[in-house]
Design a protein that fits this description.
The complex is a heterodimer of chains A (about 260) and B (about 325). Helices cover about 75% and strands about 0% of the residues of chain A. Chain A starts with 15 loop residues before the first helix and ends with a helix. In chain B, helix 3 packs across helix 4, helix 3 packs parallel to helix 5 and helix 4 crosses helix 5. In chain B, the strands form three sheets. In chain B, strands 5-6-7-3-8-9 form a six-stranded mixed beta sheet, sandwiched between helices. In chain B, strands 11-12-10-13 form a four-stranded antiparallel beta sheet, covered by helices on one side. In chain B, about 35% of the residues lie in helices and about 25% in strands. In chain B, a hairpin with a 2-residue loop joins strand 11 and strand 12. Classes of the chains: A mainly alpha (about 260), B alpha/beta (about 325). At the A-B interface, helix 1 and helix 4 of A face helix 2 and helix 3 of B.
Chain lengths: ~260, ~325
C-alpha cells in the first residue's frame, strides 16, 4: 500500500485543569434535566412551605420554642430528606448515567488523567445540588426563627452535608448500576435507622456530623455524638475527598461500555 | 481470572496470510471471559496500515475484541498492544485512537458542532472549533445546525460519531458496525472515507456482520465466530473458500428414494438423507447441481415441488469456517 501522509493537526497535552473544566461543562448539561429540576425543586419548595406554615402559627400553638422547632424541622426534613436525595440524584448520575448510556467513553478514552474527570464530575454534581438544597433548607429555618446564628449554623451544616453526600454518591454511581436504588437504601437504612441506634454508627453517617455542627453552634441538642464544630465540618470534607480518590481509582479499573 | 477452559480445537485457517510487517495492532493469545461465558477465546492477529474488516455474526465477540483493543476492558488472558502499548494504561496511545463504538449514547443535549468540538478539546486539539467544522464536513453534516443530538436520526448520529472519532487525526481507527442506520448513498461515502483514511497510512479496523458490506470494505478480512478467529486473509480467498464448502439443500418430491439414488449415482450429491416427502442433499458444486437437477428429474420421471437451500445464511458460513462442517 502506498501511504499518502497528510499533515497532521496540531495538538497539545490536555492539562488537568482543562480536563476538569471540560468534564464539568459536559456533565452539568447532562445531569440537569427539566424533570429532575422540577421534582427536586418541588421537594425543596414543600419544605419551605412547611417552614412558612410553622413560622406563621401562633406561638401558643407550639410545643417547642421557635429555635428548637426551626432546628428540628431543618434537620428532620432538610438534612434527612432533601439534602441526601438531591445529592444522590445528581452525584450518582454524574458518572453513573454516563456509564449506563455509553457516553463515558467520550471522557474515558482520551489522553486525560482520571482524577480531573472524577473531580469535574464531583464539581458538576455539587454546583447543581448546592442551590437546590441550601436555599430551601436555610429558608425553612429562617422562616421559623430568624436568628442570624441559626441561619449560619443551618447553612454550614447543609453545605458540608451536601459535599459529603455528593462525594459518597459519586463513588456509588461509579461502582454500581442502579445506584439510585442502592443510594436510597443507604439513606433510609444506614443514615435513617442505623445511625440513630448508636454512636459508632452515627459517626459513620454524614448526617451525624452535620447535626453536630448545628448543636455546637446554637446549643439545640440534635447531635448523636459530641464533637466540635470544626470536626463536624472537616469529617464530611475528608469523606468527600476519600470518595473522589476512590472514584479515580475506580475509573482506572472499570470496564467501559 | 486464573485459568480458562481450553478452547475447542480449530482446524486452522485455510487462507492464512503472513503477519503484518509493521503491526499497529497486535493481539497475542487474547481471551475474555465474562462470568461463565467465554466471549473471546485465544485470539491472535496483527494488523497494519490500511482497511481491515472484522467479520462475524452478532454475538461473535467483535465488540469485545474492539473494547479490549481500545483498553475499555482488560483481557482475561493474553496481551493487547496498540502502537506498541496498552491503551488502558498509556494516555498518549489513547490520544492516537479513534473509536466509533456500537453504543448509541451521545451527549444528547448538545448540538453536533458542540459535541465534536468537545471531542476535539478532550484530545487537546489546538483549534477545536475549526477541527470540529472540518470533521463534520467529512461526514457531510452542518456544524452550525443548532438542533440537539437527541433529535437526530440514527444515521445522522452515526455520522456524528464518525466525525468525533476523526478529530484527533487517529493513527488507529476502530469502527464497530459504523454503517448501521446509514442509507446506501451514505454507506458508499463512508466506505470511501475509510479507504481514504487507510490510504493515508492509518490502521482502520471496521467490524460488520454483513458479508456484502465487508466485500466493499477492504481486501483484508478477519473472520470471528463464537469468540474464535475462524479465518484471516484476503476477502476474495475467503469468498472462494465459502463457495467451496458443501451446501445442504432440501428437495421436496413425490419420489425421494429414486431421486436420492440418482443424485448419488451421478455424483451430483456427496450425501443424501431421505425424508417422508423429500430429501436433504449435501452437494459440493452448486453450479453443476443447478444445471443437472431439472434434466435428472425429467429423466427418471419424478416431479419436484420445492428446492430450498438450508445453509445459505451467514451463520452457516461462520459455522463452516469454525467447525469445517
Amino acid at each position: 500500500m502506498t501511504a499518502t501522509q497528510e499533515p497532521r493537526r496540531e495538538r497539545r497535552t490536555v492539562g488537568s485543569v482543562a480536563a476538569l473544566i471540560i468534564t464539568f461543562q459536559v456533565l452539568v448539561r447532562q445531569i440537569v434535566t427539566r424533570s429532575r429540576l422540577i421534582a427536586l425543586g418541588l421537594m425543596g419548595a414543600i419544605v419551605v412551605v412547611v417552614g412558612w406554615a410553622v413560622g406563621m402559627s401562633d406561638s401558643t400553638d407550639r410545643d417547642l420554642d421557635p429555635l428548637e422547632q426551626s432546628v428540628r424541622i431543618s434537620v428532620n426534613l432538610g438534612l434527612t430528606v432533601v439534602v441526601p436525595v438531591v445529592a444522590l440524584v445528581f452525584a450518582a448520575g454524574a458518572l453513573g448515567d454516563a456509564r449506563d448510556d455509553g457516553t463515558l467513553v467520550y471522557l474515558w478514552l482520551r489522553p486525560m488523567r482520571r482524577w480531573p474527570v472524577a473531580v469535574g464530575a464531583f464539581a458538576a454534581a455539587l454546583v447543581v445540588a448546592l442551590p437546590l438544597t441550601v436555599i430551601p433548607v436555610v429558608a425553612t429555618a429562617a422562616l421559623i426563627e430568624s436568628s442570624g446564628e441559626l441561619v449560619t449554623a443551618v447553612a454550614i451544616a447543609t453545605t458540608v452535608a451536601v459535599v459529603g453526600y455528593t462525594g459518597l454518591f459519586l463513588l456509588l454511581g461509579s461502582l454500581l448500576k442502579r445506584s439510585i436504588v442502592w443510594g436510597l437504601a443507604y439513606i433510609i437504612i444506614w443514615e435513617g435507622v442505623a445511625a440513630g441506634l448508636g454512636r459508632a454508627a452515627a459517626r459513620l453517617s454524614i448526617r451525624g456530623y452535620a447535626r453536630s455542627v448545628i448543636t455546637d453552634r446554637v446549643g439545640v441538642e440534635v447531635a448523636s455524638f459530641d464533637i466540635t464544630q470544626g470536626w463536624g465540618i472537616v469529617a464530611p470534607l475528608v469523606a468527600a475527598t476519600a470518595a473522589i480518590m476512590l472514584t479515580t481509582w475506580r475509573l482506572n479499573r472499570m470496564d467501559v461500555a | 481470572m486464573s485459568s480458562l477452559p481450553p478452547p475447542p480445537p480449530v482446524s486452522g485457517s485455510r487462507i492464512d496470510v503472513p503477519p503484518v510487517a509493521e503491526p499497529m495492532v497486535e493481539l497475542s493469545n487474547v481471551s475474555k471471559v465474562f462470568g461463565d461465558v467465554v466471549a473471546v477465546s485465544d485470539v491472535s492477529f496483527t494488523v497494519g496500515p490500511g482497511v481491515t474488516a472484522l467479520l462475524g455474526p452478532n454475538g461473535a465477540g467483535k465488540s469485545t475484541l474492539f473494547r479490549m483493543l481500545c483498553g475499555l476492558t482488560p483481557p482475561s488472558q493474553g496481551q493487547v498492544r496498540v502502537l506498541g502499548s496498552d491503551a488502558r494504561r498509556d494516555r498518549e496511545v489513547r490520544g492516537r485512537i479513534g473509536l466509533i463504538g456500537q453504543e448509541d449514547g451521545l451527549f444528547d443535549q448538545l448540538s453536533a458542532g458542540r459535541f465534536v468540538e468537545i471531542a476535539a478539546m478532550t484530545h487537546g486539539m489546538v483549534d477545536p472549533k475549526a477541527v470540529a467544522v472540518e470533521a463534520l464536513a467529512e461526514v457531510e453534516l452542518d456544524p452550525l445546525e443548532p438542533k440537539p443530538l437527541g433529535a437526530y436520526s440514527k444515521g445522522m448520529r452515526q455520522r456524528v460519531k464518525v466525525a468525533a472519532g476523526l478529530v484527533n487525526d487517529p493513527d488507529v481507527m476502530v469502527l464497530d458496525e459504523p454503517l448501521t442506520g446509514l442509507d446506501p448513498v451514505q454507506r458508499r461515502r463512508m466506505i470511501a472515507l475509510f479507504h481514504r483514511l487507510g490510504d493515508q497510512g492509518r490502521c482502520v479496523l471496521v467490524s460488520s456482520h454483513v458479508l456484502d458490506e465487508v466485500a466493499r470494505l477492504g481486501s483484508r478480512v478477519l473472520v470471528i465466530a463464537q469468540g474464535r478467529l475462524a479465518a484471516t486473509g484476503d476477502y476474495r480467498a475467503l469468498r472462494d473458500l465459502m463457495d467451496d464448502r458443501p451446501h445442504r439443500i432440501r428437495l421436496r418430491t413425490d419420489d425421494p428414494r429414486t431421486l436420492a439414488a440418482r443424485l448419488i449415482d451421478t455424483g451430483t450429491a456427496v450425501a443424501v438423507r431421505v425424508e417422508t416427502d423429500g430429501l436433504v442433499a449435501d452437494i459440493l458444486d452448486v453450479d453443476r447441481f443447478g444445471r443437472s437437477l431439472a434434466p435428472l428429474a425429467r429423466d427418471i420421471g419424478i416431479r419436484l415441488h420445492e428446492v430450498e437451500p438450508l445453509d445459505d445464511d451467514l451463520e452457516s458460513v461462520f459455522r463452516y469456517l469454525v467447525e469445517r462442517r
